[in-house]
Design goal:
Strand content: 15-25%
CATH class: Alpha Beta
Largest sheet: 6 strands, mixed
Structural class: alpha/beta
Strand order of the largest sheet: 3-2-1-4-5-6
Radius of gyration: 16 Å
Shape: globular
Helix content: 25-40%
CATH superfamily: Ribonuclease H-like superfamily/Ribonuclease H
Number of strands: 6
């Protein structure tokens, strides 16, 4: 495996799922996690009680965090440098696209992405659940669930497990256009 995969996870402040309150990134190169990034993100909108309880991220914590455009300055070139990967990728890809659109950030016209949930279903079809936390329990992966940094690392480890067990990521590539 020589491709570069950018595994990411986002947390959101409310049920609209159109902004992020945190992002975690794990970079996979040549079959290994080579780098990681985590940041809180000021979503510049209100938080729902449910999301605060789920993620542990409060408005006060995010208030001093960089906004999405400020974070994108740091991660944009990383996110554009490989195939994106996420667990339940349509959700994370949707939030990412909504943030890019809202802030009018120019980026490449499309992103190739892979969903680790779909890969895991093919790799481990007999498991009763392919939710991130259940897969981590099954595989013995440490997880601080709904912490974007921990979730991206866990998804990267699930990705690598699937690849090591014969799952070809290229079979799962989808394209997200803006």
């Amino acid at each position: 495996m020589t491709d570069r995969y950018i595994v990411f996870d986002v947390e959101t402040p409310n049920s609209r799922n159109n902004r992020m309150s945190a992002i975690g990134i794990s970079i996979i190169e040549n079959g290994k996690i080579t780098d990681e990034f985590y940041s809180l993100v000021n979503p510049e909108q209100e938080f729902d009680y449910f999301n605060i309880k789920l993620t542990g991220i409060t408005p006060e914590m995010a208030e001093e965090a960089p906004t999405f455009p400020e974070v994108w300055e740091k991660i944009g070139s990383i996110m554009e440098s490989g195939i994106l990967v996420a667990h339940n990728a349509p959700f994370d890809m949707g939030v990412l696209q909504k943030c890019l659109d809202f802030y009018g950030i120019d980026t490449k016209p499309s992103f190739n992405y892979v969903c680790t949930c779909r890969m895991a279903k093919k790799c481990m079809p007999n498991l009763p659940s392919h939710r991130l936390n259940n897969l981590c329990d099954y595989l013995g992966i440490t997880l601080d669930h709904h912490h974007a940094g921990s979730d991206s690392t866990a998804a990267a480890k699930i990705f690598l497990f699937c690849v090591e067990n014969g799952i070809e990521p290229k079979e799962f590539i989808k394209v997200k256009t803006g």
